[in-house]
């Protein structure tokens, strides 16, 4: 009785009962849910038989078609299709399955566009068979070139100038063939490079000192050089300590791996030959050209080879020749040539040089040096008298990708006075790096202003500083030596690294909107033209680091992304790095392929923050080699 009284008291009390309030709320909520469930069930339920009958009766009264009869008739007169009617679209390019297995170990030194077997199909006349002959689509390899068994990360510069691991370039032929010329020696697990050469038995450094006694190599007026028939590039290697940057080139020929030795030493070099097409450099690129017993027949074919040197030589630049036929009076017996043939060869060279309006500065001992004029005012006057080598007709002198060489003289830009330098005078090094290139200040590069050049230089300083936070190997001084920029534009990436112990091969794609390679050379940097739908003229494992700015956007719809990446993999050293900047959608496709090639990769934010569509792709090529020779790869 007491409990009942207590309950009544609680009900009439004004004090809120929390337990009853919760009960009321739960009951009300349950009622609403049930109500709405029943309403929904009624709304979506099929009609009842009574409703169908009523609808049929009403349709008959109104002379309307019987909906039920029509439905049953449709079912009976049609074949039911139970196959799937939803299909996923084809995956976009870049997301398809991609497989790049290792190539056979015999391809460890494969150079696609200078393949020895393919070259034999082409004429030997004018050395055409040693030029670039790239594989067609059906011949292209879809595998990853292996490093030779035992490959090691190359020695660091400057130690690498004098030594390289034998396992990286396992060829002893030159140690035998050039034994008496001090090119290279084999000692234990490495090669030694004493710095000797055919025409400099006292060493490349002493040889360069001899050149320095004849022309000024110290004031910074000579910064870029080209070495034709470079051997193991000792001349270029010893110029580096004098702040002179040389591009060394030689064909892939019987001197096995000479360019490969140069690259292992950390010296800029490319596979190349003077044959029938222009060298892949712009006009007026080099301050100095050099040939030390390079065996190029300078006087033959109407002097076409020397005419090509003239095209790439800067106004006022020097051509240095040592070896046959220079100083033939002292060497004709050792060269196993007659005096008459050697004298005739030198006379022919002198005649060709004169037809190019060059001036012979000096011949002393085994060295002869000619100088190109700073402009063509006097040269044009002599043409009216002698007419022995006409000027080339209107043709872009900077075009140099599969462009045929000519025997005509490439005209220099016009000047108003005989004291002016055609194309504009360059600052001495190191001021040359930051000075506005004459091609820009003169307006020759349409669309690029002086302010744009300066802004670009500052931009790349910031970008490279950011790169070093993403790639610790790039930040580690001395870890990298050979660098490649796949789309160099104005060379800002290379300029920002000028204080690091590296060199950068600046490539300007032939598909680029502007041909800026000439401006890059006017900064005192080096580079080459390249079509990235084809292989580069270099050996596997050339570069420690590869950089590319918008490369894959540039080559969209031109060639396959995976083919460009496989070429990058070929020329990148094991444990080398790649940094690409491009649109995020492009880089996502790149990453899919990179993962399949066993690169360790990631995509990082733009240096300005995560809201930029342009992102940074960072990757490291894993270390792997061919199996030991006695084992077969699986």
Automatic annotation (TrEMBL):
Topology relative to the membrane: Single-pass type II membrane protein
Q: Does the keyword Transcription regulation feature in the UniProt annotation?
A: no
Give the top-level enzyme category. Answer: transferase
Supply the Gene3D superfamilies for this chain.
Vaccinia Virus protein VP39
The question of whether Kinase is a record keyword is answered with no
Entry's Gene Ontology cellular component terms: endoplasmic reticulum membrane; endosome; trans-Golgi network
Q: What are the BP-aspect GO terms?
A: methylation
Task: Please state what the protein is called.
Answer: Methyltransferase
Q: What organism is this sequence from?
A: Phaseolus vulgaris (Kidney bean)
Q: Species lineage, top-down? A: Eukaryota, Viridiplantae, Streptophyta, Embryophyta, Tracheophyta
């Amino acid at each position: 009785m007491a409990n009942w009284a207590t309950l009544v008291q609680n009900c009439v009390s004004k004090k809120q009962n929390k337990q009853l309030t919760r009960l009321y709320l739960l009951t009300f909520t349950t009622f609403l849910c049930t109500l709405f469930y029943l309403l929904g069930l009624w709304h979506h339920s099929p009609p009842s038989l009574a409703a169908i009958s009523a609808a049929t009766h009403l349709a008959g009264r109104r002379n309307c078609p019987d909906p039920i009869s029509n439905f049953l008739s449709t079912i009976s007169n049609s074949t039911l299709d139970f196959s799937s009617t939803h299909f996923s679209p084809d995956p976009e390019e870049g997301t398809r399955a991609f497989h790049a297995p290792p190539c056979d170990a015999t391809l460890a030194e494969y150079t696609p566009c200078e393949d020895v077997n393919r070259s034999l199909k082409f004429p030997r006349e004018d050395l055409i068979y040693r030029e670039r002959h790239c594989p067609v689509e059906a011949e292209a390899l879809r595998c990853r070139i292996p490093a030779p068994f035992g490959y090691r990360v190359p020695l660091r510069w400057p130690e690498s100038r004098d030594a390289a691991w034998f396992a990286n370039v396992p060829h002893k032929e030159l140690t035998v063939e050039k034994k008496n010329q001090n090119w290279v020696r084999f000692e234990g697990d490495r090669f030694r490079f004493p710095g000797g050469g055919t025409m400099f038995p006292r060493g490349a450094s002493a040889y360069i000192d001899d050149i320095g006694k004849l022309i000024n190599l110290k004031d910074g007026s000579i910064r870029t050089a080209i070495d034709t028939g470079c051997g193991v590039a000792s001349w270029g290697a010893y110029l580096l300590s004098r702040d002179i940057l040389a591009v060394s080139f030689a064909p892939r020929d019987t001197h096995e791996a000479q360019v490969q030795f140069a690259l292992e030493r950390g010296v800029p070099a490319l596979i190349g030959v003077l044959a029938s097409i222009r060298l892949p450099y712009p006009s007026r690129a080099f301050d100095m050209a050099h040939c030390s017993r390079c065996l190029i027949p300078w006087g033959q074919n109407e002097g076409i080879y020397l005419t090509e040197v003239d095209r790439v030589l800067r106004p006022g630049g020097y051509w240095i020749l040592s070896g046959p036929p220079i100083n033939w009076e002292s060497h004709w017996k050792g060269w196993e040539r007659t005096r008459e043939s050697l004298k005739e060869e030198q006379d022919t060279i002198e005649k060709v040089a004169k037809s190019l309006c060059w001036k012979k500065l000096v011949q002393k001992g085994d060295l002869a040096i000619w100088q190109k004029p700073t402009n063509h005012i006097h040269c044009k006057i002599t043409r009216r008298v002698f007419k022995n080598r006409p000027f080339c007709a209107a043709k872009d002198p900077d075009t140099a990708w599969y462009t045929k060489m000519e025997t005509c003289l490439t005209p220099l830009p016009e000047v108003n006075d005989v004291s002016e330098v055609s194309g504009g005078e360059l600052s001495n090094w190191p001021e040359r790096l930051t000075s506005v290139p004459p091609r820009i200040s003169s307006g020759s590069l349409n669309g690029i202003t002086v302010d744009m050049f300066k802004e670009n230089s500052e931009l790349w300083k910031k970008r490279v500083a950011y790169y070093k936070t993403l790639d610790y190997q790039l930040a580690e001084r001395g870890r990298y030596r050979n660098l490649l920029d796949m789309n160099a534009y104005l060379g800002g990436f290379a300029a920002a690294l000028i204080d690091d112990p590296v060199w950068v091969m600046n490539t300007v794609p032939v598909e680029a909107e502007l041909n800026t390679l000439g401006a890059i050379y006017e900064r005192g940097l080096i580079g080459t033209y390249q079509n990235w739908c084809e292989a580069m003229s270099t050996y596997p494992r050339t570069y420690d680091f590869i950089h590319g700015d918008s490369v894959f956007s540039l080559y969209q719809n031109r060639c396959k992304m995976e083919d460009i990446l496989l070429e990058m993999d070929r020329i990148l050293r094991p444990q080398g790095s790649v940094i690409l900047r491009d649109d995020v959608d492009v880089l996502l496709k790149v990453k899919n392929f990179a993962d399949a090639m066993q690169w360790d990769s990631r995509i990082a934010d733009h240096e300005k923050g995560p809201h930029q569509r342009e992102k940074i792709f960072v990757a490291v090529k894993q270390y792997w080699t061919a199996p030991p020779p006695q084992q077969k790869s699986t």
